[in-house]
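Archive entry: two folds, one per protein. Generate the first.
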Amino acid sequence: MHAVSIEVPSRTAAPTFASVAEACLDDVYGYLLYLTRNNAVAEDLTGETFEAAFRRWRRFDPRRGTPRAWLLAIARTTALDWFRADGRRRRREERVGATEARVATQEAFEGFSPVLEAGLRELSAGEREVVALRVVLELDGEETARLLGISPTAVSTRLHRALAKLEERMRHDDVA
């Protein structure tokens, strides 16, 4: 994945939805894949994200943040809604005795070393999300804080702890 920055050169030359969507598609998909760890779900949520963004495009205000951060905020909301709905569905299935084994795909960590994959799996969901936003997608602390609804200090602390855990895991596996 690579970071893409969309900047509005002037008030008269605002970016089009199509140009923003094209520039940010990989980042939104990658973020959702990182959160869900399921290729099919990430694809579905990416579509839902861009559908919602298209409906809200007229309300986008570049003074409040970049188009990329705006899209990632919509993606996060879409993913949280999916997680809540998925949780309700699983609870319903458990009540009627129809639980299914869920197989998590490994595609979220594709291309990472086995040691790094194992380390990322050991992080909490919140820590993985901060790593995805700050390290993988290269959002700054302020954008990440706004997106997650936490303070920039909390973002920094969470990132520091996650990276320390990963470093310890890498050091431990080097010794072993």
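Generate the second and append.
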Amino acid sequence: MESVAAVQVLSYRMLNNLSDQQWAQDLLGMMYLDEKLKNGLMRFSSSDVHRDSNGNILQTGDTVVLIKDLDVKGANFTAKRGTAVRRITLVRENTDQIEGKVNDQHIVILTKFVRKSL
């Protein structure tokens, strides 16, 4: 039984790392994990999750709204508070950063300056 749990955890982590792909999201949705295993896995991988300023989990493709005016370095403009950033992508190496387009410029945004649009 231990080997099955290890395979489930490994599979979940691999699919979660590929969660920007639709097929991986589909497989994650179909995956069954024992409740005890799922709770332990969520606690273990919580540091790998991108969260907005309110603590909501961000995923690739989400729309976020800026909660503060941000000076965009190298682009000579200010991204205004309330600006919607659609179809974000997650920066894999840093859970404090996302990427998106504002004023047709591809920029990196700190997650503490956005909130998830519902």
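Annotation attached to the second fold: The radius of gyration is 17 Å. Strands lie at 64-66, 70-72, 77-79, 84-85, 89-90, 97-102, 105-110, 114-116.
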